[in-house]
Structures are given as structure tokens and as C-alpha cells.
Amino acid sequence: MHDKRGNVLPLAVILTSMILMAGVGIGVVVLQGSQRAVEIDQSVSAYYMADSGIERQLYEVRKDNATAKSLSDLNEHYPNQGSWSFYGGYATTTQKIMSSIATSSFEVIDLFNPDNVSAAGVDHMDMSWTNGANCTGGLEAGMEIGYAEWGTSGGTITLSNQYTIQRSAVNAHSMIVPLDPTKAYRIRLTSLVCTAIDVTAQTFDASNIPRGFPGDITLAAEGTYGKATQKIDVTMPKTNILSGVFSYVIFSECTLIKGTGTPVCPP
Asked: Of the ranges 67-71, 108-112, 166-170, which one carries the lowest mean pLDDT score?
């Protein structure tokens, strides 16, 4: 007869070790999940800190005509230990990319500094685009570019009495718009037949060196919350182009009526 006493002890040790290892593994997973949740929460909070910085800079630029130097001094600290600060540059952009332009809408590009209107120094603008999803059956989006111009010599702004329209060639996906470096421009883009996507505009001087879009600025803010940091930069027109929501703006001394009715005019 064999003596089997003591065989339960090794089995108990093995089972206990397995349970302990499983518990440690579950604990590690739970701890890592909790850490990731905290990191995500802090990251989202840091993003909103940076977003509030962009909003503050936008207010300073459009309401108080802030300069680059004054923006660089901006920062904010909150009671929840969150904060944001200005980073990067306050600069014009050398390329504009518009995700899409439909035939029923348009985009506006300003080639002038709204704070100090002067010659844009732009000799030509290069445009490129591709066909959108609704360009089927051999249709090509095409592009129409219209622009008004004014001179700024001698500190005097001289408005032009003409509005120039240039259309792309059939089946073309790019075009060059010749301009006058001594003048400032407001340019309007619209597609001709179907939606144009990835519309890209670049400006150059007479030596074919890229020029910035003086009507655009880049704002940037860095948000911090806990151990997380988020950075946001936004490129946009320096002034809000309200007339961009209309194809045409009509002014009248009479009351404007939507729908049926009789307008009332002053005597």
C-alpha cells in the first residue's frame, strides 16, 4: 500500500497561485483601464482649454484688432487647474484648401489686409480642383473665378468700375488667374457644372515665389489639463465676410418682404 499523505498541499499551492495570478491580471487590466479613462478625460479637457484660447484670440482679433505681439501675451488659468496659452505664429497663409464648392455656393478670397489696405503684391493665382461625387456621366466641375480690384497708390484707395470673370477651359482641372501686384482684390470662386472638391489656391509674385494671403490669419493655442496637452491651430479670414451668404446683396429704401405682400416705400 502506497502512502498518499501530503499530496493535497502542492495542489493547494498550485490552485492558490493560479487564483492569485488571475486576480493580479484582472487588477492590472482594471488599473490600466482606469488610467486610460483618466488620460482620455484630461485630453478632452485640454482640448477644450485650447479651444477656449482660440475663441479668445478670435475675439481679440475681430473686436479689438489685436496684433501678433499682443496675442503672444495672452493666457488663461482656471480654478480646475486647466489653462491655455498662445503658441506658434500669427501669420498669413500661402495656400488655401477648400474641401468643396457646389454650383449653388461660392467661396471668397481676400487679397488685402483689412487692417491696412495696400497692394497685395500678387502677380498670379494658381487654382486646382477635382470632380465631386455628383460629376457623373462625363461631367466636369469647371471653375468660375470673378474678382473686383482697387488700387492703393499714394495712400488713396481707388475702386475699379469693372468686375472680371474668368472661366476654366473644358475638361480642365486647373487654371492660372493673372493679377496686378499693385492692386488689392476680392475674389469669388464657384463651380460651373457640378461640385468641385479639394479646391486649392496658391498665390505667387512676379518671380513665382509664393505669397501669403493677407486676408487670412493663423491662430494657435495650447491647452493643458492635468498631464495632458492639446494644441489647436486655425486658419481663417481675418474679417467675417457677412455678404458671403448671399450671391447678391440688394439695398432698398422700401420694406423687404419674404413671400407675398406689398412693400411700403417712403414718400
From this structure: 67-71
SS3 18: helix
Residues 174 and 170: their CA atoms lie apart, in Å, by 10
Q: Which CATH number is associated with domain 95-214? A: 2.60.40
Provide CATH 2.60.40 ranges for the chain.
95-214
At 245 the pLDDT is 42
Count Cβ atoms below 10 Å from residue 105 Cβ, excluding itself: 14
pTM for this model (two decimals): 0.61
3-state secondary structure of 150: strand
CB atoms within 10 A of CB 121: 19
Measure the CA–CA gap between 193 and 132, rounded to whole angstroms: 10
What mean pLDDT, rounded, does the chain reach? 81
Contact 247, 106 (CB under 8 A): yes
